[in-house]
Amino acid sequence: MAKKSSQLSLDLEHVLPAGELKELSKLLSAGRSELARREKIKRTHRELRRRGVKFGGAMPPYGKRVGADGKTLEDDSVEQAVIAFVVALRRQRETYPRIVELCNAQGFRNRVGKPFSKSLVVLICERDAPDVKIPRGRRPKSKPPQEAA
Fold it and tell me: What is the DSSP string of 9-76?
C-alpha cells in the first residue's frame, strides 16, 4: 500500500509545481483541523443538551465560528476571505447566479463541503453588503432630452 502512496506523490509532483503541491498539502491539513473543530462543537452541543442548557444549537453565521471557550463567536479567516470575495463581486454588480458560478469555479465550498448555492450567496450579501441593491429586471431607458418650446 505504501508503494501506491509514494507513486501517487510522484505523479502529483509531475502534474503540480512544488509550490502548489505544498499549498494543497496545507489545505488538506486545514481540512482535517476543521473537521476536528466541528467534532468539538458537536461534543459541546451534546454536553449542553445533556445538562439541560437551552441554546439555539444552530451553526454560527457563515464567517464566524465558536471560540475556544465554546461560548463566544470569532471570525473564521477562511470564510471571511470568501465573504470578501462575494461582496466584492456584488459591488461590481454581478448577479447571484454569476457569483455562485465564480465561487464554485474557485473551489469554494459551504460548511458541509458542498458547492456554493444561490441561497448562501444571498444570505452573505444581505448580511455583509446590505447597501448594495441591484434593481430587478431591465433598467428603464433614458428619455431623450426635450427641446425647449
Answer: HHHHHHHS-HHHHHHHHHHHHHHHHHHHHHHHHHHHHHHHHHHT-----PPPPTTEEE-TTSSSEEE-
- Report the pLDDT averaged over residues 16-26: 65
Q: Are 125 and 132 in contact (CB under 8 A)?
A: yes
Summarised one tens digit per residue, pLDDT across range 62-71 is 888 888 887 7
Task: Provide the domain count of the chain.
Answer: 2
Q: How far apart are CA 43 and CA 41, in angstroms?
A: 5
CA distance 97 to 125: 13
Please tell me the pTM assigned to this model. Answer: 0.53
Domain containing residue 94: 59-133
For 133-141, the CB contacts below 8 A with 24+ separation are 134/90, 134/93, 134/95
